[in-house]
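Note to self: keep these together.
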Amino acid sequence: MSDRVARIEREWKRLSPRGPIEALSVSTRCRLISEHFHQATQESLEAFDLVPFEWEVLGMLLRRGAPHEAAAGVIARETGRSSASITHRIDKLETRGLVKRRSSKEDGRVVLARLTAKGKKLAAKAAGPRIEAAGEVACALSKAERKQLNGLLGKLLESLDPGGADDV
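Structure:
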């Protein structure tokens, strides 16, 4: 491998030959790649007057299917964000007329966010370019390699966030 992290890894190995430098390299590569994905996300959403934090909520609600609704706590867990940040995001999306907030009929303390018709239309239009942008960042990998990488990253995430798939 000849990316910039390979050079950094060689330098660290000279200083700490027995240390788990490969883990540091994984961390550094994940961070750098994440920045590329984030930039691609921002660029893909600009035409829709959306920013990534808005897309996280809209995309999550769109994926859930009709009635395109979820509790704020569920949105927070699925997006890996704090409840306070999700509340702020829902406020902004509600101001723009993209989501509507209501209290749960079963438990009045639970706040639900639902896509409005305008929000559903916008999210559906933005989904294609957003997915394509991610594909462009990952274009150096074949479909099989993307599947393999997803499996490895999923294994790592599951070890760090056990039960994360079941709590939403």
